């Protein structure tokens, strides 16, 4: 007989620019139909939803489920800091890269909900998370901290008021490509300092970001280490040639792509804002530390 669970469901109704609006109610309806006690949370913005989630977690539910994209996963990771409550994820965003890494279906909401319901009845998987220390505090993340070309594109897209949707990101990418230039970074990898000129630095707990771009194809969610990916200076033509290879993860075979592994990574550079799990964090410098086996997730064991 299925055990009755108390579940908090935090929903982003604007995931995928509103196209995933029906997924949250479907999660709540399914879980209630299975006999679980469900608290459903929807707020006007991220800070209010985070606060509401943290309050709901003081009642010690059996699970927190987030419905949305990687930003909602980040909300769950932050809300669960220091907790043993497991995190369930039903993807309805544009990227959904944490789900890709966990083996949760990203293109079939019904399949993802079925998997969630099944995982509520088995022990959770335990994975790493990360903590980013920056000038204004700390931010937790589960996927990838980025500080380079992709972060510059995100920063420009967020400042643009037109066009809306994914086309805004595409336009921002074209503008930044026209301005493509290497950045001088000061990195500290487990205490070893190095200065590098690169187009991109990604501190990866997961293998992909940006909706399936396998920037760190060998990254593991539970090995206690970040994969730190550097893309050395390239011309625009060279960049355009290597860029499609990121979706297959074959770019790491190029000698201009360097991968280090470390559990504590500091990144400093002028004029660059760090992003993590698709959300703005803070201007560099930042320091990311692996929180090994600190996050329980409702996902199948590989």
Any idea what the CATH architecture of the largest domain is?
Sandwich
**Largest sheet: spatial strand order:** 6-5-16-13-8-9
Quaternary structure of the protein: single chain
Structural class determined from secondary elements: alpha+beta
Q: For the CA atoms, what is the radius of gyration?
A: 19 Å
- How do the helices and strands follow one another from N- to C-terminus? EHEHEHEHHEEEHHEEEEHEEEEE
Compute the number of structural domains: 2
Q: Indicate the mean pLDDT.
A: 91
Can you walk me through this structure?
This protein has 302 residues and is an alpha+beta fold. The protein has two domains: 6-122, Probable inorganic polyphosphate/atp-NAD kinase, domain 1 (Rossmann fold), CATH 3.40.50; 137-293, Tumour Suppressor Smad4 (Sandwich), CATH 2.60.200. The chain is built from eight helices and 16 strands. The protein has helices at residues 23-33, 46-57, 70-79, 97-102, 109-119, 149-159, 166-178, 236-242, and strands at 6-11, 37-41, 63-68, 87-91, 125-134, 137-141, 144-146, 183-189, 192-198, 200-204, 226-231, 257-262, 264-268, 273-276, 279-283, 286-297. The chain has a six-stranded antiparallel beta sheet, covered by helices on one side. A six-stranded antiparallel beta sheet has the order 12-11-10-7-14-15, covered by helices on one side. It has a four-stranded parallel beta sheet with strand order 2-1-3-4, with helices on both faces. Strand 1, helix 1 (23-33) and strand 2 (37-41) form a beta-alpha-beta unit. Helix 6 (149-159) crosses helix 7. The longest helix has 13 residues, at 166-178. The chain is globular. The protein starts with 5 loop residues before the first strand and ends in a 5-residue tail after the last strand. The model has no long low-confidence stretch (mean pLDDT 91).
């Amino acid at each position: 007989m299925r055990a009755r669970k108390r579940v908090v469901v935090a929903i982003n109704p604007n995931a995928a620019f509103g196209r995933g609006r029906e997924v949250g109610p479907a999660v709540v309806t399914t879980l209630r139909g299975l006999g679980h006690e469900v608290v459903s949370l929807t707020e006007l913005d991220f800070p209010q939803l985070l606060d509401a989630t943290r309050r709901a977690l003081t009642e010690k539910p059996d699970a927190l489920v987030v419905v949305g994209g990687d930003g909602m996963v980040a909300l769950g990771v932050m809300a669960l800091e220091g907790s043993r409550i497991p995190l369930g994820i039903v993807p309805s965003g544009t990227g959904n890269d944490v789900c890709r890494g966990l083996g949760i279906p990203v293109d079939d909401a019904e399949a993802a909900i079925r998997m969630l319901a099944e995982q509520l009845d088995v022990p959770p998987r335990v994975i790493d998370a990360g903590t980013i220390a920056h000038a204004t505090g700390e931010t937790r993340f589960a996927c990838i901290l980025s500080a380079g070309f992709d972060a510059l594109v995100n920063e420009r897209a967020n400042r643009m008021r037109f066009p809306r949707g994914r086309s805004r990101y595409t336009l921002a990418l074209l503008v930044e490509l026209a301005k493509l230039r290497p950045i001088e970074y000061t990195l500290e990898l487990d205490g070893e300092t190095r200065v590098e000129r690169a187009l991109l630095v990604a501190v990866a707990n997961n293998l992909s970001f940006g909706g399936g771009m396998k920037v760190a194809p060998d990254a593991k969610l539970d090995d206690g280490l970040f994969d730190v990916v550097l893309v050395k200076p390239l011309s625009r033509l060279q960049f355009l040639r290597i860029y499609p290879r990121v979706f297959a993860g074959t770019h790491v075979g190029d000698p201009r792509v360097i991968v280090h592994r470390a559990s504590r990574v500091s990144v400093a550079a002028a004029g660059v804002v760090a992003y993590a799990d698709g959300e703005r964090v803070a201007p560099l410098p930042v320091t990311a530390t692996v929180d090994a086996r600190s996050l329980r997730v409702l996902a199948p064991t590989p």
